[in-house]
Each structure stands twice: as C-alpha cells, then as structure tokens.
Amino acid sequence: xxxxxxxxxxLVQPGGSLRLSCEASGFSxxxxxxxxxxxxxxEESDWLCxxxxxxxxxxAPSMKGRFTMSxxxxxxxxxxxxxxxxxxxxxxxxxxxxxxRGQGTQVTVSS
Length: 111
Hints:
The protein is mainly β. The chain contains no helices and eleven strands. The strands form two sheets. Strands 2, 4, 5, 6, 9, 10 and 11 form a seven-stranded mixed beta sheet that branches. The chain has a four-stranded antiparallel beta sheet with strand order 1-3-8-7, with no helix packed on it. The termini are far apart.
C-alpha cells in the first residue's frame, strides 16, 4: 500500500525556516519523481518543487532562492527546506508521487 506521510509543519515567525519531511512507504522514492505542492483552502494548489529520477531538482521561479527539495533514499524520504518564510507561505503542504499524496502538514507563518 502506498503511503506518504508529511511532517515538520508548524507555526513560525516571518523570516524563519522549516524543513518538511515526506516519508514514503509502499514504493521507493529512489529514481521517482516526487513533488511538493501547497494549498490554501478555497484556492488552487501551487506547485513548489520537484525532484526527478536523475536526482535533479527544480522549483517554481517564485520559490527559487527560498525553497529547496532533497531526497534521502536510505530513509525513503523527501524534504522541502523553506527559508525566509513569509505570511503568504501559510498553507497546507503536500508531497505527491504521481496521483498519490499525503495528508498534508500545516505551515503557518505569523508573528
């Protein structure tokens, strides 16, 4: 059974950092295309970053310089490092493998 479990969200002050984790089971993240999205209730999901089979990564232009994605094959986990967080980054963050996604983790940026 495929499962994705996100963690690492929480409340952070503007300018702070968080590292989100997405632990996968039921498949190997190695060589898989994995993505991070976020969603504010009532709005469309935003694609943030992806890691590809050759371990290259890419992020949406608006996220470059603040967000980076990485993968630890030994832990079967992907990560999203988020720096210099802003109130507009407040959302539920999801990782995806194909059409599968986890339950999400809430990130709230507020002073």
